[in-house]
Amino acid sequence: MKIEKIELFQIRIPLVAPFETSFGVTTDRDSIIARITADGVIGWGECVADGDPGYCYETVHTAWHILTDWLIPMLIKAPIDHPSDLPQRLAWVRGHPMAKATLESAVWDIAAQQAGLSLSKFIGGQRDRVVVGVSVGIQPTTQQLVDKVLSFREIGYPRIKIKIKPGRDIRDAQAVRAAIPGIPLMVDANSAYTLNDVGLFKQMEELELLMIEQPLGYDDIYEHSKLQPQLKTPICLDESIHSPADARFAIELGACKIINIKQGRVGGLTNAISVHDLCAERNVPVWCGGMLETGIGRALNVALASLPNFVLPGDLSASNRYYNPDLIDPPFHFNSDGTLSVPTAPGLGINVVEKRLKHITVRKADFPSD
Ligand code: OSB
Ligand code: MG
């Protein structure tokens, strides 16, 4: 494939409601959308880095810099045989997985369209629907959290994840568990605790949580390997896993029993598939994480989650959980069986509403520049 044009759109899109985690509150999602034209075919990618470095070091600004000054010049200088060649092609740039993944998404979208296949089929996906769960941010009060969770339960979300932070943990989790006794429930700490908090996690055992996501350091594997053996509840790593090698280290050290795969955090779809395959070989279940994506990033996640070892519900809620309207039309709708349908049209299988995209664009760049 020969890339003819790359367009970047830095966007700011309002969330339907503020989203609070242990690292901050998001009211508007800042992101970068890439639109690549190659051999006359258009492909889309969404950068999952946020406006601030609260989740990881990448931000919209670091990604813009790395994309425009380094990755795009490296990508357009020679034709591409296959999207899975990109991690090698871009390896000279150390780190910056989310910036890299933005381009890889668009290249996968184009390659799948050229093959006449949905991205899901193109990568060997085996489901036409993926089971989803909802990630509920920290609410002003525990009662408001319970009400919010009940409203998502009412819609039919089959798995609930709540965000926790020191002071808003065990009591929030107990209240939700008491309100909905049987539901698969998990907590995500986004690295807000230390090994000194082992007592808290032991107290949580009676809640029979599906898992505890990323309790300790955002870049830690070792201390998680000290925590996991003390708990029956599985630990799931999110922030700490940036590559297939990290996934291997975590599994071999016994730092977790489950891995959350976010294609952006591991540097793109190729690496995400490698993490999936490695975990499948080692009998470690995985699920697809989310980063408040618009429909563009959501479509990529849904295709990824159609691979066989995505056996746990992902953070893949319907479009209207975060955006109304979404950047794509039709948006992702929630099926009454607790799933999202995997798009069947070639590539990502989405229709981007370009007028809406332009409306929320705060900065634009074209390559080659004209
Ligand atoms: O830790 O999984 C996380 C959102 C932004 C950054 C980090 C995380 C999240 C979520 C929301 O939990 C997942 C989603 O529904 O997109
Ligand atoms: Mg997480």
Please give a structural write-up.
Helix 1 packs across helix 3 (97-114). The strands form two sheets. Strands 4, 5, 6, 7, 8, 9, 10, 11 and 12 form a nine-stranded mixed beta sheet that branches. The protein is of the alpha/beta class. It starts with a strand and ends with a strand. A hairpin with a 2-residue loop joins strand 1 (3-21) and strand 2 (24-38). 51% of the residues are buried. It folds into two domains: 3-116 and 354-368, 2-Layer Sandwich (Enolase-like, domain 1); 121-341, Enolase-like C-terminal domain (TIM Barrel, Alpha-Beta Barrel), CATH 3.20.20. The chain has helices at residues 60-76, 86-89, 97-114, 119-122, 142-155, 170-179, 198-203, 222-227, 244-253, 269-281, 295-304, 354-359; strands spanning 3-21, 24-38, 41-47, 129-136, 160-163, 185-188, 212-213, 235-237, 258-261, 286-288, 314-315, 339-341, 361-367. The longest helix is centred in the first third of the chain and has 18 residues, at 97-114. The protein is globular and about 55 Å long. It has twelve helices and 13 strands. It binds 2-succinylbenzoate and magnesium ion. Residues 55, 135, 188, 190, 238, 289-292, 315, 317 line the site of 2-succinylbenzoate.
Kindly summarize this structure in a few lines.
This protein has 370 residues and is of the alpha/beta class. It is 32% helix and 22% strand. Magnesium ion (MG) binds at residues 188, 190, 213-214, 238, 260, 289.
